Amino acid sequence: MTEGGNLSLTNSRRNRLLEERRNWRKNHPPGFIAKPVAAPDGTLELGKWECCVPGPPNTPWEGGLYKLYILFGDSYPYTPPSKIWSVVVCYAEMNTLFVMLRFFYRFCPPILHPNVYTSGSVCISLLQENGWRSSMQLKDILVSIQTLLAEPNINSPANAEAYKLYNENRAAYDERIRALAKTYAAANNTINE
Question: Which residues carry out catalysis (predicted)?
């Protein structure tokens, strides 16, 4: 497959995403998957990547493989990845995560997590304007997501049910997450790198 002739790709964005692809293919964290999405004509859409984040080892999330799409806006890498289209179709897969807006990820369907709103959106500080550096790479984003799964920011709860369960009955919370991980492992057992 070759890179598509997408005119909306600025030179710096295009060059950075090509560099990200080369770097990823040479060296990426074990168990993670990231690749540009193929357009219907077989070209690669460098501005949209399909990724998978493994559940962190030795946590209730272990064994799950969590699928996501990252959309890179025209000003990337100078601003964090962003959602640049006004409408996103939420895939029917139960294991899809989206970077919806500049500062938000969206799980479809929403997952039980203290930092994930019931709508599925979650704010990641790494991707906020004041936390973003243009030197950050795709692997930084994906590892940050993996870390957030295991280490919720309890000072910034987004989901009252998950927050309460996490703080008041950690064993029950962990059991629900283990069940979720089994579901995500079964749903993603055919994903290719």
Answer: 123 (glycyl thioester intermediate)
